[in-house]
Amino acid sequence: MKYTHLTEVERYSYQARRAQQMARNRLSRSRRNKRYSDIDFRLPEALLRLDWSPVQIVGYLRVRGYPTMSHELIYQHIWNNKILGGTLWKHLRQSTKKRRKRYNSKDSRGRLAAKRHITERPEKAEHRKEPGHWEIDTVVGRGTKHCIVTLVDRMTGYTFIGQMDDRTNESLNVRMSKIMTRSDLPFKTINADNGTEFHGYVQLEKHHHCLFYFANPYHSWERGTNENTNGLIRQYLPKRTSMSHVTQKICNEIAHNLNTRPRKRLGYKTPTEYIHAHL
Questions:
Q1: Do 147 and 271 reside in the same domain of the chain?
Q2: Least CB-packed of 25, 81, 237, 266 within 10 Å?
Q3: Are residues 127 and 213 in the same domain?
């Protein structure tokens, strides 16, 4: 329909047919009407198979100037792929952790005299102003004494994962010494919980010139970076499964996946990129 012969009254008064045609024209020009082919999804699919989330994929590509669709559209593509028998959905993180409240709980774990409290930690560590301030934890499996130790830099999210045959301070010190000796990254402070596996911390301080600080019992939010990282690791080592098969090679592969995955809080840079940029 053309409007070149409309009178002035018709041009500025509401015309239903004219309004409908204008709406159709706008819809045809809208970005929301853009259609993507299977070729357009090849790069997002490749990044999904690296266990990146749709939000990380879109943020990473946009920061680097690559054209991309919205993360909602990638999610739609994933679920359509699942309906057709695809496996892209298996690369999404699953949050199955059950939480319970603790009422008037007392710390029943081993007590350690003369340990430094988290409130004594340096300001640069508290406010993530420099790399080299770490959070540490152990993650246990089901049915065996095997476990892993996770070490995460507060500023950058850079992660080390170590295999342990048991949850003792001897095993932890051996694995930690290997990690710290082989890395060229700084280890200034380490924030731990009150588990007995950390009771040999004095030896680590002496040999590696770092300082340990301890959180309040059951205050997991005081080590939030590490808690979040442990949740990411559960994508590869689900809760309630045995860790008897876990080797150091597997730990290194999981850490590599996490360290080369872009993070929203880092401006969609990877922890590897971010930590080396700030050293």
A1: yes
A2: 25
A3: yes
Do residues 169 and 263 share a domain? yes
Token pair for residue 260? 């080369």
User: Which of 218, 95, 225 lies closest to 152, judged by CA?
Assistant: 225
Split at pLDDT 50, 70, 90, the class of 10 is low
Distance from chain centroid for Cα 70: 20
Statement to judge: residues 124 and 85 lie in one domain: no
Instruction: Give the per-residue SS3 of 186-248.
Output: CCCEEEECCCHHHCCHHHHHHHHCCEEEECCCCCHHHHHHHHHHHHHHCCCCCCCCCCCCCCH
Q: Whose CA is closest to 176, among 142, 204, 152?
A: 204
Considering the entire predicted model, what is its pTM? Answer: 0.71
- For residue 151, the domain's CATH number is 3.30.420.10
Q: Are 222 and 191 in contact (CB under 8 A)?
A: yes
Q: Domain tally for the chain? A: 2
> What beta strand segments (E) does the chain contain?
133-140, 147-153, 159-164, 189-192, 211-214
Gap between the Cα atoms of 277 and 279, Å rounded: 6
Q: 5 in a domain, yes or no?
A: no
For residue 255, the tally of other CB atoms under 10 A from its CB is: 21
> What's residue 13's pLDDT?
66
Q: Give me the domain span that covers residue 86.
A: 36-91
Q: Could you tell me what percent of the chain has a pLDDT over 90? A: 60
Place of tokens 């319970």: 100
pLDDT at 100 over 60: no
Cβ–Cβ under 8 Å, residues 155 and 128: yes
3-state SS assignment for residue 19: helix
Pairing of strands 133-140, 147-153: antiparallel
**Sign (positive/negative) of CA torsion 11, 12, 15, 17?**
positive
